Amino acid sequence: MAKDELSEFHLVGTRPLRPDGLDKVTGRARYGADVSMPGMLWGAVVRSPHAHARIVRIDASKAEALPGVKAVVTRADFPEGLTGENWNLQENTMAGERALYDGHAVAAVAATSALRAQEAARLIEVEYEVLPHVIDVDDAIRPDAPVIREGAADATVPEGSPPNVARYIEFGHGDTEAGFAKADLVRARSYKTEATHQGYIEPHACLGQLGADGKGEMWVCTQGQWFIRQMCSSVLGLEAAQLRVTPSEIGGGFGGKTTIFMEPLSLALSRKAGGRPVKIVMTRSEVLRATGPTASASMDVKIGMTKDGMITAADAEFRMQGGAFPGAPVDMALYCAFAPYKLPASRHVGYDVLANRPKCAAYRAPGSPMGAFAVESLIDEMCRELGLDPLDVRLKNAVKEGDRASYGPTFGSIGLVETLEAVKSHPNLELPLGPNQGRGIASGYWFNHSGETSVSLAISEDGTVQVSVGTPDIGGSRASIALMTAETLGIAYEDVRVNVVETGALGVNEPTHGSRATFASGKAAVIAARRAIAEMCRRAAAEWGIDAEAVEWANGAAQPAGPNAGKFPPMGIEEIAAKMGSTGGPISGHHESVPEGVGASFGCHVVDVEVDPETGRTTILRYLVVQDAGRAIHPSYVEGQFQGGAAQGIGWALNEAYVYGQDGRLQNAVFLDYRVPVASDLPMIDTQIVEVPNPGHPFGVRGVGETGITPPLPAIANAIEAAAGVRMRSLPMSPPKVLAAIKAAREG
Amino acid sequence: MNYHTPSTFEDAARLAGAAGGVTRFLAGGTDVLVQMRAGMVLPDDLIDLKKIPGVHDIARTADGGWRIGIAVPGAALGANAALVADWPGVVEGMELVGSTQVQGRATLAGNLCNGSPAADSVPGLIAAGATAEITGPGGTRSAPVEEIPAGPGKTTLAPGELISAILLPPRGKAGGDAYLRFIPRTEMDIAVAGCAVNLRLEGDTIAEARVALGAVAPRIALAPGCAAAIIGTTLDEAALAALDAAAQAACSPIDDKRGTVAFRTEVAGVLARRAAAIAYSRAKGE
Amino acid sequence: MSKIHVTTTVNGDEVEFLADPRESLLDCLRDHLGLTGSKEGCGTGDCGACSVTLDGTLVCSCLVLGVEAEGRRVATIEGMAEGNALHPLQRKFLEHAALQCGFCTPGILVAAKALLEKNPDPTETEVRYWLAGNLCRCTGYDKIIRAVLDAAAEMRQEAA
């Protein structure tokens, strides 16, 4: 990082109002379901009520006879011959020979009103032959489990593996047996986590239009308009450039809106209905049954530790199901599980297992929370057994710059030690606890991600600046990108407008995922701004009749680069902009790349809980998030990410879970029973931003969105043991389970 | 779907009696609209009772009890200080139904007629000795609230019959009631177990008591064993232990997505103890 | 199945629409009147994103039939600011960064306004319980609660 970039910021680190704020507090912001079009039809989807069934017959004649019904589509309306992930996406969009989970789409209809479409959907008759199903990951990996799909295993799967194993991963280093032999304490434990849903409050919604000429448009709530374009094109056999996808404002995603669900159905219906636009809005029940929750996991972990707290070796075997398709993030879970620790030896084994559940999607640090639950719980248990302070043990084994990561690569600049030190000196650790109360700590990790990024910046006639980015703004990235752009240009924050644009306006961008928007789009915007600055310096140089190299940019103006350059008054951006028509035309800057220099983010959480010994209910009394942000561009939204991640982790730890009946149907497909935390469940969530700048970003940014969901699962388990003397190794740590554990401990 | 807005209960009963298909009454609407939305119930006739005069009123009866209109939402119960002073347990049960928003709509009569074994307002009504005034094709009758539930989603009301008012008896002196439920979160959940206790003291001794349990059996019902465990006591440790055991003995719950048999049974005992303690201290005027 | 003509007042303006009796007030606001500020997050009264007031009472508009609005007064997020003058709650939500995706924001603002009209000086606990029916998945509620308490303090000061 160049020195001047860190010396003094005018805007980076301040907290201006977000540019989209006014629209969002007045109800004007337009989300997925908020837009209508002339001639618009409404779509509805027929879904399987069975976890696993052969589709014998679909009869839509009654629906088609209903006045106002304009189109019905089934899998027969989709092209054949797709392979790999494209086939998976198509099969998940619309079932082919078999329905693979409760909620799997089997047909869709478009009609002149939403009510008419729903009536028509009820009139579509589907005959099923119900097949045996399997839900739990440990059941699904049995050799005699119902087979979800023959031939689903890829080349990684060893010969003779159970039939539902789709992928296998194994890695490690050193001699684990020798490591365990050196340990004073070796403990092996098993853990389970249940699937949870991202729980964004905005259900999926899209408005798609597709003509017989193969040209189409879509308005859709998504984290990634290019992903929608590519996936819809693949599933429907379209040319990608003929489909223009415009992202709406997005009502939360957390990874769950990085893929397609019913979007191709709106296009297929539109094409069949003569090109009339078709709007499909999911119900909450459809969101929970048929979009992508996270995986469920069953994990065995073994750790060796010396009596002074040094880890000598670690072994992990994780089994995860991510629904009826490959893609459970078992690899990510293994990579992250031991990331905060310097391990002398390790072995990691993972199985990606198919089950009759919806296709999992990304959810905030995919895989990391599960692995952390297992590893951070076991480390806490071992510290307790050895009489060691769990924070000191974490510091003792903490990875630093130059250390080999547990998953192979060598860490660059990281801030784990700084984060743990900040926790150690935080006043929350000194607060006294009462009866039935306990304190737990745990660490968490996420790599962060870069990805294909394309950003364009243009100077307006009056010197104000527009920035076109391809990463939808989920939590304030327009504000952070405007701050970095304005800082770079030396102009006011208010003079920059950041627009999230449609697929026709930029090259390919990956979605807002992997905590990449402020890192990748931000870095690209800064580089684009520098290119515009270079051009503006050239224009000034030409006017002054000096070399462009003799002009520098400062405080929003071109200036002679020193006494030898000549004596000219600064030429401000407004002046350059006003004259651009006669000095060479429009001035812009552009950058596209897969930005290098991603910086990983470590966090550590401290939670105080109280457990009611008579009911097993856990109350969160106090919560602290400490995390390395690299650099907080807009600290309010960094804190917001910390707090939001913690709240989701708390929900996962205590009450959120997919609950299936014996029949394989999802039993809690409404917010009444899918229990996300409500306002009265939580205390204020204290935050402390640690800033160990990432040298790979012009302002030092690391991603901050994901790490925060990881530590709550084990931190709360550790606090519950401190409060109630019981060790919970399966999520959710709901009152019935905690009370049963308390009773068993009392009796046993 | 036909939407009706009768102006008398007799007209409502006639409409319901004459309707051939699926009929639903609309009081607060917080259950019916959810069922319609989910496609669980698709009524042919929806009879909105909110235009009937008096359904929004809370009135003292001549004997010092209360008459509560069938469209009075939970928020209005809580805003009536005299009613809260008399029957805090009844009101707190109703106020636990749903969110602030749901409190603006949901009613005692609707909560009762929905027939849920977990209905939060019903144990308090039963413990209080409330009665339902029922209008039907044959005229008007009344029945104790505990006779209305008939198992999950069912009531004992005959076709064409509907509840036209909820009646609470006079509170009397030295009485107190309370309702507690257990839910995993702090709000927004359906009761996993619930218990209402209504008692009257003579001095420090419990002279009369009614205890009702919710969400631990197919029907919300009185638990006479619980009442017997505390009548004649000063709610000392022994009485509380007996109450706990009696509550657990009265349970016949199920395992479901909200709780297990063992958990519901054990927590019913805990709630009975805690609710009794609150009712006792309310009766003492503490 | 015939539609019913409904005349009602929304944010002070008299409006008319034709409603299928199965349609919720939320459907009618969004699809017949173009008032898309109220959101559907669940359709079951569990998320509060559709919060409006009906004759001054806070309700979920997904749990009210459109035909029930006949002759009533409905207030939605679109009527919260007076022209360009934001309500103190709206300003405080912006200042405190009390929104991330913003989808739950209209419902929370409408609900919080109803709270402060009833209780101008709520405690943190009272705000949390009043808003328990308004789910937010982004913020962990911290900044929302602070914004409501701060707006209440400012409104009390202005009233004094």
Describe the secondary-structure layout.
The complex is a heterotrimer of chains A (748), B (286) and C (160).
Chain A lengths: L2 H5 L13 H6 L14 E7 L5 E7 L1 H4 L4 E5 L10 H10 L4 E2 L5 E7 L2 H10 L1 E6 L6 H4 L24 E9 L2 H7 L2 E9 L11 E6 L5 E5 L4 H12 L6 E5 L15 H10 L5 E4 L2 H7 L5 E10 L5 E11 L8 H8 L8 E8 L14 H19 L3 H7 L19 H9 L12 E10 L6 E7 L5 E5 L7 H13 L6 E5 L16 H28 L6 E4 L2 E4 L10 E2 H6 L1 H4 L4 E6 L7 E11 L6 E11 L6 H20 L30 E6 L21 H13 L10 H13 L1
Parallel strand pairs in A: 1-12, 10-11, 14-15, 18-19, 25-26
Antiparallel strand pairs in A: 1-5, 2-4, 2-6, 3-5, 7-15, 8-13, 9-10, 9-12, 13-14, 16-24, 17-18, 17-23, 20-21, 21-22, 24-25
Helix pairs in contact in A: 4-8, 8-9, 11-12, 12-20, 15-16, 19-20
Chain B lengths: L1 E3 L4 H10 L4 E4 L5 H6 L7 E4 L9 E3 L5 E3 L5 H6 L1 H6 L1 H8 L4 H4 L4 H6 L8 H7 L2 E6 L2 E6 L17 E7 L6 E8 L10 E10 L2 E10 L6 E2 L1 H7 L6 H13 L11 H23 L3
Parallel strand pairs in B: 1-3, 2-3
Antiparallel strand pairs in B: 4-5, 5-8, 6-7, 6-8, 9-10, 10-11, 11-12
Helix pairs in contact in B: 5-8, 9-10, 10-11
Chain C lengths: L3 E7 L2 E7 L5 H8 L18 E4 L2 E4 L12 E3 L12 H8 L9 H14 L5 H7 L11 H18 L1
Parallel strand pairs in C: 1-5
Antiparallel strand pairs in C: 1-2, 3-4, 3-5
Helix pairs in contact in C: 2-5
Can you describe this structure in just a few lines?
The complex is a heterotrimer of chains A (748), B (286) and C (160). With 748 residues, chain A is an alpha+beta fold.
Major sheet attributes of chain C: 5 strands, mixed
What profile does the largest beta sheet of chain B have?
5 strands, antiparallel
What's the total count of β strands of chain C? 5
CATH class of the largest domain in chain B: Alpha Beta
> Which value, in Å, is the CA radius of gyration of chain B?
19 Å
Structural class of chain C: alpha+beta
Tally of separate helices of chain C:
5
Oligomeric grouping of the chains = heterotrimer
Strand content of chain B: 15-25%
What proportion of the residues of chain B is helical, as a percent range?
A: 25-40%
